[in-house]
Design brief:
Blueprint lengths: L1 E4 L8 E3 L14 E3 L3 H9 L4 E4 L21 H46 L4 H20 L3 E7 L7 H19 L4 H13 L9 H4 L6 H8 L1 H8 L8 H9 L20 H16 L10 H10 L7 H11 L7 E4 L4 E8 L7 E4 L11 E3 L7 E4 L7 H7 L6 E7 L1
Amino acid sequence: MQKIRVDHLQPGIFISLSNIGWLQHPFMLSEFCISSEKQIRTLQEMGLTEVSWDPARSTAAPLEASAPVVEEDFGATALTSMLDEKRARVERVREKREQFARREREYEKDTAAASDILKTIAGRPIEAHAQAKTLVGRVVADLIGAESEVIHLVNSKSKDVGQAAHSVNVMVIALLLGKTMKLSEEELKSVGMGALLHDVGKSEVPSRILRAESRTHPEEEFYRAHVAYGIKAVAGIRDLAVPVRNIIACHHENWDGSGYPNRLTAEKIPKLARLVALANRYDNLCNPFDIKQAKTPAGAITHLFKKEGAHFQPEMLQAFVKTLGVYPPGSFVTLSNGAVGLVIESNSASILHPLLMLHDPEIPRSEAILLDLRDTDLTVASAVNPATLPLEVVEYLAPRGRVDYYIEGAS
């Protein structure tokens, strides 16, 4: 960074106000590219005579010194206007934080309900099924009534997320994909129920086998038996729809016939089971038992296309990308101004303009900047692998390391 006189600034010059502190200036970011004369007048009104600038990130050169021109002073107006704008943005951020807190409480409640359902369905199948229908029915009703879908990245407070969180994640992702594919309400309810119950048979598999990085042949056979155990667990629900049973039975079948237990191929795999299989694989890539093996959302989608594309119906895989967007929640990204952020919310109506949490070591994480790209002229430059970022940046943006989703209808 170099120093530049404020009266030599012009649009296109990239400046930094990091030494001032985010709360002490009216701009949304502490580092940005000058885009208007209004911003320059605001800097002057703040009493600044010089600021830091970065020639490498600037698209214009400093102005040459010139004789002062006497003209009307609009600085006070510009500063007041920008302070008002920033106060309005800060208020919107405060409201957004409160909204996130509500969503996280709802997510915890739904995860707790899912945990109860999975634990009791074998012993009290009718009661558990009724609870599951209530949970799935509410989520489907909200989804159907929305013009666009807002996907939140949630920060679960639970110490033991376990199978319930996976089931809720798969349900959310599968329902979103199902809406993209224009499924009927009845089909969506079957997708939601099947996704919620798809791994219910894992309660019969020892934890050491479930969590093993590698398994012997007998252990792998035991693990794969969770599909049959799942069908047995729901046997007491006489009115369970056939598509739901098929999701439980076929969520590990692959389009190319390499899956199990029946090595079904292509259209022989029930449609809704194909859909849940894709959502299930995505969540397992993002949230494996060994967090060191976890892929970022963008990395998981790339992996599905490049390494496992043959396992899934091509049209469904294309719809999946459309559903989660180019930068799914949980993705680390760099912006056009060089800032690093974490995507924490995406809206299907504007997939290239997600809501980000920005890294700024001068601001406590609890007060981190939330930036809606729809409100700025900044753009996402690229997704970035967190392994390439400094540890303090990753811990600031994503201290849990998990990728859990919650959805909300946006009218």
